[in-house]
Amino acid sequence: MSLRVSELRVYYRTLKGDVKALDDVSFTMRDGEILGLAGESGCGKTTLGKSLIRLDGRMRHMGGTVELDGRELPIGDDRRMNEFRFHEVSLIPQYSMSAMNPTRKIGKMVGELLRSRGVTLDRAELESRLDLVELPRTVLGNYPIELSGGMKQRMVMVISTLLNPSLLIADEVTSALDVSTQKAVAKALTGFRDAGFVKSMIFVTHDLALTSRIADTIMVMYAGRLAEKAPAGVMVTAPRHPYTKLLINSLPEVGVRYADKKLAGIAGSPPSLLDPPAGCRFRDRCPLAGDECAQEPPVAEVEPGHFVACWKA
Amino acid sequence: MMLRLDNVTKVYKVGAFGGKAFAAVDGVSFDVRQGEVVSLIGESGSGKSTIGRMILGLTSITTGSITVDGVPVKAAKEYYRHVQGVFQDPFSCYNPVFKADRVFRMIKDSYYPEVSGAEWDERVRSTVQDVRLNPGQVLGKYPHQLSGGQLQRLLIARALLLDIKLLVADEITSMLDASTRIDVLNLLAELKERGLGVLYVTHDLSLGNYLAERTVVLRNGTVVEMGLTEKVFGDPLHPYTRKLLAAVPRLNAPWEDAEPTGVCRYHAAGASGPLLEAEAGHFVACARLGDCPR
Ligand SMILES: Nc1ncnc2c1ncn2[C@@H]1O[C@H](COP(=O)(O)OP(=O)(O)OP(=O)(O)O)[C@@H](O)[C@H]1O
Ligand SMILES: Nc1ncnc2c1ncn2[C@@H]1O[C@H](COP(=O)(O)OP(=O)(O)OP(=O)(O)O)[C@@H](O)[C@H]1O
Ligand code: SF4
Ligand SMILES: [Mg+2]
Ligand SMILES: [Mg+2]
């Protein structure tokens, strides 16, 4: 087992109270697994990613544990986490493409970054990884603005995985890219896993079709909780949670004519995480909701490896 | 009607001291009629946003012409009353020091001074609800307190508050999740029924396929294929269009299943041709259309 997250709770402190962005989330990941993480905007995906690497100033670890390769990560202790960051867990943050230092040539930036981590640059290794993601070696002499979005994104990937971390978290790394570039980046990510540069990976995205192409397992969150987790093929063909079903039904596909057909979104909006209602958090949007849904549904394993939090699944 | 691009070219000066010329848009012609959505697709850098910015008078046209109802683009208040754009990257187009309701109030002051404050507030509330936001949750907030998806929808609402006839929508749904995205697309479809023309720029081909009557495919600043969406997506003729379609991720079908078979050596060599009408309403830039075995 590469990653084990148990009953994790991470809240944001605000003037109005705690935003319960991760509220009792548990799951595990195997060695070599790519986990696609999806769910409505604001459901806690980025919060989960950040929790495994660095809590920002407002985030509080309220309970639960994270174990990586059998060692517990001290996620609430910023200083002790230093030993793990970049070496064991690495994060490609949302909007990271625009976060590269514009005044440094890329090669120089990589060197400085590694030095700050006490590691010397292995030029040959770096170049072979550029080859793998099909970046010309000359990019090391370029400034970030001289690269297209897709090239920058692949560069960030190479940098974040140079020390062969056990777990890589990629947060919305493909959303700003066109389809051809998206495909290249997605394939590069699986290539990194296959080459053993990272043991396992959490791939955060809104794009379920893209996730289904590269993930082994898909996890869908809703309002700070796990809604469903299943092997990718099962998730897109036989989802069991009402939210996942509606989500998948709202995806348009190419090659289908929509002249008189309309797809429907999910009416309503997710509950506030400041003061989430008791019971199932999807209840007031759920077409199947019944009396029992006033109680919180437990996460049940309905088939081996298929977990659902719904009374009626 | 109504939006017409006629042989439009945009040349940027690049390199040290602007010594080199680079045609980001090169001889593009198409139109968008009243009550019609036209989607503009193409890889990053193909010139989609440049076209959008020219239509909105945000950047000059090097040669050719762009007209709306026969009138050339003009960066003036009267023009913007009817033509609005919502752009990629919502964080950069919002003034960070104004709360959302203040931004909306500025539209009233500028365009609708005769409308009463109470009536305007009501219009704002209902438009904000149309883009599926809760007015109470967003109106009193500064941009940095809103998520990317919320900002994107507020920008759409701002455009809709004006009496627009044409909307240039450049990647307006990139930060929305699947369900909200469909709501926004359905809203555009509804406005289209009421006569709005939309130029819908997107890299998500499945969204263009869902919404648009016609599709224009752009490569390196030139149109390589255009026509009815069902023709362009159902029977793509240009190798570039086929390549794009093949890269679209599909639920539960590997990319390999969609890989185009047979490479066109003529196109691989970088050759292209003038836009020819392959069948009624379906144009493709290929000089060898007649003898293409496909
Ligand atoms: N600094 C903060 N202070 C207070 N609340 C926050 C803060 N950052 C995030 N939140 C809230 O925590 C919840 C989870 O946010 P998170 O960024 O994890 O969502 P997400 O699933 O990554 O969404 P998206 O798809 O839009 O990136 C949201 O309701 C958000 O409003
Ligand atoms: N101000 C400028 N000066 C010089 N070149 C420019 C300028 N603006 C855009 N370009 C170039 O023009 C080309 C077209 O850019 P444009 O932004 O229109 O592409 P796009 O199709 O919208 O791409 P994307 O999908 O990435 O948004 C690109 O090669 C870009 O680098
Ligand atoms: S537990 Fe009840 S309300 Fe929640 S998803 Fe299942 S049926 Fe719907
Ligand atoms: Mg996020
Ligand atoms: Mg653009």
UniProtKB/TrEMBL annotation, chain A:
Residues 3-248 form the ABC transporter domain. InterPro entries: AAA+_ATPase (IPR003593), ABC_transporter-like_ATP-bd (IPR003439), ABC_transporter-like_CS (IPR017871), Oligopep_ABC_C (IPR013563), P-loop_NTPase (IPR027417). One of its GO terms (biological process) is peptide transport. The keyword Transport applies. It holds the Pfam family ABC_tran. GO terms for molecular function: ATP binding; ATP hydrolysis activity. Keywords: ATP-binding, Nucleotide-binding, Transport. PANTHER family: MALTOSE ABC TRANSPORTER, ATP-BINDING PROTEIN, OLIGOPEPTIDE/DIPEPTIDE ABC TRANSPORTER, ATPASE SUBUNIT. This is Peptide/nickel transport system ATP-binding protein. It comes from Planomonospora venezuelensis.
UniProtKB/TrEMBL annotation, chain B:
CDD domains: ABC_NikE_OppD_transporters. GO terms for molecular function: ATP binding; ATP hydrolysis activity. PROSITE patterns: ABC_TRANSPORTER_1, ABC_TRANSPORTER_2. It holds the Pfam family ABC_tran. The keyword ATP-binding applies. Keywords: ATP-binding, Nucleotide-binding, Transport. The keyword Iron-sulfur does not apply. One of its GO terms (biological process) is peptide transport. Residues 3-245 form the ABC transporter domain. This is Peptide/nickel transport system ATP-binding protein.
